[in-house]
Every structure is written in C-alpha cells, then in structure tokens.
Specification:
Elements lengths: L1 E11 L5 E12 L10 H26 L12 E11 L2 E11 L10 E2 L1 H5 L6 H13 L2 H11 L8 H21 L2 H4 L10 E11 L7 E11 L5 E6 L6 H11 L8 E5 L3 H10 L4 E4 L1 H21 L1 H19 L3 H15 L9 H18 L6 H6 L12 H10 L9 H16 L2 H8 L12 H5 L1
Parallel strand pairs: 6-9, 9-10
Antiparallel strand pairs: 1-2, 3-4, 4-5, 6-7, 7-8
Helix pairs in contact: 3-4, 3-5, 3-15, 4-5, 5-15, 9-10, 9-12, 10-11, 11-12
The structure holds zinc ion.
Length: 461
C-alpha cells in the first residue's frame, strides 16, 4: 500500500486568474523507516521540476514586458530563436531566447534585439557561482562538485574545470574592484574611526605547477582591531603589483588605518621585513618578542653546555646573555649588542674542547646579524606588555597552516600556478572573513543569501 501525492503549482496572474500545473506525482510507501519522508532523490526531482516551472514563467513574463515597441506599442516581430542554457543550483534550464525585429517606427539603433541576452549576460545563476566559489575556497574543486551534487539537483555535467573557472572569475572581479577603488589608498578614512590595532604577516611556500621542484612565496597576514573582529589577507608576491592597496582595503573595512596606532609585527625574516615597511610605512613596526626570546633560549642551551666545561666562565657568559635579554626587552638594541660581545669573545676559549663549537659560533653570528638588522624594530616591550598590547606574532602563528596548508598543500602532490593560487587565495580570505556575500552584492544588489563566516579555527583543526 502506498499514499499517492500529486503536487500542483498554483500560479496567480495579475487579473486574479489562477493557473494550476502538475509538478510531480509521488507514490510513498510507509511500512519501513526509510520510507518515511521525502527521499533526497525525490526532493531533488521536486526542486528541479519546480525550478523549471518558476523560471519558465518568470522568463515568459519578462519577455511579455519586452514584446511591444516602447514608442508606438506595436508588437515586435520575431526574427528567430536561440537557445540559452541557464545553469542554476536546481538544474540547468534551456531557454528559448527570441531575437526581435526593430519596430517600423524606429529608424536607427540595431535591427534586432535579444531581451533575454540582456537579462542573462551570464548564463550561471549567482547563487550557484557563490556556492561553487565558497566551497572551492575551502575544499578542492573536485570535492566541491561532489558535495554540490550530493545535495542539489545540479546538472550532472558540472565539472571541476568549470567550478575552477567560475571561482577564479569571482576572484578576478575582486581584483578589478580593488584596483579601481581609488579612495582606498588616496583618501584617508573619514569615518572618524582610527582604531588601535595590530597586523602580522608571515610567509609560506607552494609548489610550482610549471617548474616542478620549485616553490614560490605566498604571503599571508591578519589584522586585528582592538576589541574587533580579525580579518586575514594573502597574496602571491609575484602576482600582486599593489599589495599595499590590498592591505589598505582590509584595514579600512575594519576601521583601521596605517598610522602610529597600528602595530605591525613580524618575525624579522629578511623577505618579510622589507615588505612590511612597504605595506604600511606609517605604522609602528615591531619585532616579535616570541621569536627573539626563542633565539635567546637556543643560545642559553649552548651556554649551559659550556658551564659543564668551565663553571666560572660559563656562568659569566650566562649572566651576559641575561643582561642582553634585559636590554632587548627594554628596547635598547645597541646596548644589547654591546653586552652580547662578552658572550662572543669568551666563547673562543672553548674552541678546542667544546663539541658543538661550530654550531655555537654559527648561532652567535646569526643572533648578532638578527639584532643588527632588526634593531629599528625593537621597541620597549615592557610598557606594551603591561598595557596588554600585543608583543608577539602568536596571533598569526597558525595562519600559514589554516590559510595555505589546509587548502593549497594538503597533499604533497598539490601544485599551483602563482596566478591560480593568488586568485583562489582572494576567495578563500573572503570566505574566512565573512565578506564573500558582500562581494557578490556589489554585482548583484538583490543577492539574498545571508553569509555565515567560516571561522579560521574550524579549518585550522
Ligand atoms: Zn514602434
């Protein structure tokens, strides 16, 4: 025994005339658990059929509104029809697109018009492109296709290639927007907001698709207004001629700007250091205390080894290192450098009988170089720390992992073109920042989806 359902669509016309159309007939068993409720296949079929009916009528209403001459009201003749395939979340629809002749009362302009081509300049519904780009910013293009097909009556021909193409197109549009927004860079924030905040950047490597066995640098960063929500950004340096504009756009969206209230932190690595100045010349630039402390800790371990060989000298060296640390903490890199000299000249007496001597000299030289090159980035950490301000890049520590590794280097075999990675990263940061819907709304003002931010920690796990 089964219950038979017949679903009908009632369409209300302007003149209150009612038109009823059959949508689908379902025979539902009810003897077993798996019989109860709509099955996924039934639901997909229902959506597909409903979509067909809704779109067909919308298109008919639209074409009816364009069927007559706007000047004399005469009905326009049809020259021929073309078929447009409109791709939606609920299936692909073939639509007949008429080419209408110019009215006899008109003497210039094109000889024919295609109203449907004007309505659908793109043949994919924005919501489909949105889900394609959102999900492929989180998981692979192939998996995105599989997931969408699992839940929706998406056309079976949807391929990873077309998902990739649509996603990169979204990114290209974002890039164009970024480069045409002149006010981003030239006009300072006038909203009265100039919040204190902190920005950190870090770099990661991706495998090059064309030049196998080589890698290219990808920069990721995060900006956090005090008491506000963080946003991340990223770019492939070789693909980005205006990275500063990108950062400014992110800062502006958070009520931040590049000025003395913004602290810019990095770990002091060479490539990042110069970039950080370029990105935000007016900010305060600080060296991450955590990396500094780690380097001191590594040196201390060597000195503990030396203390076993010569307690007196080893202890003197440890004291010198502690005093170096004190100077660094209080923002006195020159004094720290002088104090550290004692460690350097005393170490030579261990040259012949300390097994790790060459590693020690290397670490000492490296430390001196690090302090020398980053001296201008070493602030008085004490007051910042007591005021609860950020002194370390710990807040961006997992960023390379969550922003890059989880999508771009999940498998050893994953390879990218710098351009493909750069563009996908633009969609990925927007998804994580909760800005993808507003990106779509710029092109489609009535785009109705509500955005749910995919938090970094969800994908960092
Ligand atoms: Zn006319």
């Amino acid at each position: 025994m089964a219950v038979r359902f017949k679903l009908q669509l009632v369409v209300m016309a302007d003149d209150n005339e009612v038109c009823i159309d059959d949508v689908v007939v379902l025979d539902k068993q009810h003897e077993q658990l798996e019989h109860i409720g709509l099955s996924l296949d039934e639901a997909k079929m229902l959506l597909l059929e409903l979509q067909r009916q809704v779109v067909t009528r919308q298109i008919a209403a639209f074409l009816a509104s364009r069927a007559a001459c706007t000047n004399c009201g005469w009905r326009l003749g049809t020259k021929d029809h073309k078929t447009i395939v409109f791709r939606t979340l609920f299936g692909n629809l073939e639509l007949a697109s008429p080419r209408l002749r110019r009215c006899a009362c008109q003497h210039d302009g094109p000889l024919s018009t295609s109203p449907l081509v004007e309505l659908l300049p793109e043949h994919t519904a924005p919501e489909l492109v949105y889900l394609e780009s959102k999900w492929s910013s989180l998981v692979s293009y192939g998996l995105t296709v599989k997931a969408l097909r699992d839940f929706l009556p998406i056309d079976a021909r949807l391929s990873a290639t077309s998902v990739r193409r649509n996603t990169l197109r979204v990114a290209q549009r974002c890039e164009r927007d970024l480069y045409t927004q002149d006010e981003v860079v030239t006009r300072p924030s006038r909203s009265g907001q100039d919040l204190p905040g902190v920005v950190g950047i870090d770099g990661g490597y991706l495998r090059h698709w064309e030049h196998k066995h080589t890698h290219f640098v990808t920069i990721v960063g995060k900006s956090v207004p005090t008491g506000g929500e963080a946003k991340c950004f990223g770019f492939v340096q070789s693909q980005d001629s205006w990275p500063r504009r990108r950062l400014m756009a992110t800062l502006r969206a958070q009520g931040l700007r590049s000025g003395p209230k913004l602290a810019f932190l990095s770990d002091g690595e060479d490539s990042i250091r110069s970039l950080q100045w370029h990105l935000s010349p007016r900010a305060q630039h600080l060296l991450d205390w955590f990396h500094l402390a780690m380097r001191l800790q590594r040196l201390r371990q060597f000195l503990v080894g030396l203390t076993h060989l010569d307690a007196a000298v080893g202890t003197q060296m440890q004291t010198a290192l502690e005093r170096t640390k004190w100077s660094l903490w209080h923002g006195k890199p020159k004094q720290a450098f002088d104090r550290f000299r004692e460690v350097e000249w005393r170490m030579w007496q261990f040259g012949s009988h300390y097994a790790k001597f060459s590693a020690l000299t290397h670490a000492v030289n490296e430390f001196q170089r690090y302090i020398d090159q980053n001296a201008h980035l070493i602030p008085d950490y004490g007051p910042r720390w007591r005021a609860g301000q950020v002194i370390s890049t710990a807040f961006i520590e997992s960023l390379v992992n969550s922003l890059l590794a989880k999508r771009f280097a999940k498998k050893q075999s994953m390879q990218w073109t710098p351009q493909g990675a750069h563009l996908l990263l633009q969609v990925r940061t927007r998804t994580l920042n909760g800005d993808l819907v507003s990106t779509f709304r710029k092109s489609y003002p009535d785009f109705s989806l509500v955005e749910e931010r995919v938090h970094q920690h969800l994908i960092a796990a």
